[in-house]
Specification:
One of its GO terms (molecular function) is kinase activity. By secondary structure, the chain is an alpha+beta fold. The chain contains four helices and ten strands, in the order ααβββββααβββββ.
Amino acid sequence: MERIFRDYETQLAAENQRVVEAEARDVRRSEFAKIQQADRLAAQIGRSVRVNTGDSLQWEGTLESLGKGWIQLQSHSENILIPMNSVNWWEGGTPFSTVEARSVSRSLSLGYAFRALASARIPVRIFHNMGAVTTEGTIERVGLDFAEIALHPLEGHFRAQQISGWRTVQLSQVSACCSLLT
């Protein structure tokens, strides 16, 4: 009889263990459901990642920074700003790691990043969400949702007489903005 009780207790303990493990899996799934992509990316700062954007281009580099709605990669030759709304997918870094993005993000918008490029007078190549067209030149002014670009070739040293025109770019239609490392 004692053996029957022991067997029953063992079965009961095993069943309790299965219930606890199932509840733990549910809690993990529930907690993971609260993680935003920015939290996953924040944990990848300093790591190599590959990003595919809305124009089907792929960008590779070290994740340097994370802003409000954008990421910055550094490749061997250029800095690349990518708006988060253009990201189709990304890979690399470390799996299963997260950091609260607010602890990394400086809450700087894409417009702020464009204003920094304009202040530095750094020539850029802007890739648009529709893919085929790029804009090359220097960002002159940045509004709330647009940027005005002085169009000129990126080769050589920029001179005002090289400006071939002006283009206004809708920030929501930018898939990437590249500037050469200086």
